[in-house]
Amino acid sequence: MYGTSDTNFIIIHAAFGGIAFVSGFISMFAKKGRFLHRKSGLVFFYAMVISALSALLIAILPNHESPFLFAVGVFSLYFVVVGKRALKFKFKNPNLLFDKSIALIMIITSVLMIILPVFLYQKVNIVLSVFGIVGVFSAIKNLRAYKNPERLRKGWLKMHLGNIMGAYISAATAFVVVNQFFPSFYGWFIPGIIGGFFIAYWTKRVESQKLKDSFE
Predict the structure, then answer these.
(1) Domain boundaries, the chain
(2) Could you tell me if residue 60 is left (phi over 0), alpha (psi between -120 and 50 degrees) or otherwise beta?
(3) What sign does the CA torsion over 145, 84, 129, 193 have?
(4) How confident is the model at residue 1 (pLDDT cuts 50, 70, 90)?
(5) Torsion (CA) 114, 48, 99, 201 in degrees, nearest 10
(6) Euclidean distance between CA atoms 45 and 20, whole angstroms
(7) pLDDT above 90: residue 39
(8) Which end of the chain has fewer CB atoms < 10 Å from its terminal CB, N or C?
(9) How many helices (H) and strands (E) would you count in the chain?
(10) Could you confirm whether the keyword Transmembrane appears in this record (predicted)?
(11) Can you give the pLDDT at residue 215?
(12) What share of the chain has pLDDT > 70, as a percent?
């Protein structure tokens, strides 16, 4: 049986997760840098933050313990915050203390995702291990970028797009898994594979200089 507070958290998580899923889709296909893109992106950001925080709470509640939900919450929160913060990197000399701190937290959390199942259950958890490896590499990549402010300023748009897309992939993964669109653990990886192609596409667009003017 669910308690009232448990039910409230689940409703909040599901509601804002749905809002994030829809607003993120709109922002993804809206003309970049224009009103619809900016506003839907802002809705996506706040909806993702609320949904991710509620996911973290639900995942540690008694009788609701879920390492998978916790992993999705961590990834969603990290990627959406980094994606939003990247908008500030187009200006000179941004304060990177917060960004470096959350990257280190992400590395620690990701490593724990990999090793804790081994210590607690004497077996490797494939899903958590994949999430953990991606988290470590993403955070290390960001930390390396923070060491070169000038390069960071030039690459802010790629960081914004890549991380916001990463957050959307997390939301899409949760949606697919909860609704069991794919059998077994495939639902945990298919959104990421599809999303990876979108990230590659937009990255190539940025590198070819076709989008920068619309963002500046």
Answers:
(1) 4-215
(2) alpha
(3) negative
(4) very low
(5) 80
(6) 7
(7) yes
(8) N
(9) 9, 0
(10) yes
(11) 57
(12) 91
* Residues shown for the chain: 216
AA letter at 87? L
Can you say whether the dihedral through the CA atoms of 183, 78, 53, 47 is positive or negative?
negative
**C-alpha–C-alpha distance, residues 20 and 172, integer Å:** 9
CB neighbour class for 179 (10 Å; exposed up to 12, middle 13-18, buried from 19): exposed
Q: Over the stretch 142-157, which tens digit does the pLDDT of each residue have?
A: 999 999 888 888 888 8
The answer to whether the CB of 191 falls within 8 A of the CB of 25 is no
Are 110 and 136 in contact, with CB atoms under 8 Å apart? yes
| Dist. CA 112–CA 84, nearest whole Å | 26
Amino acid of residue 209: Q
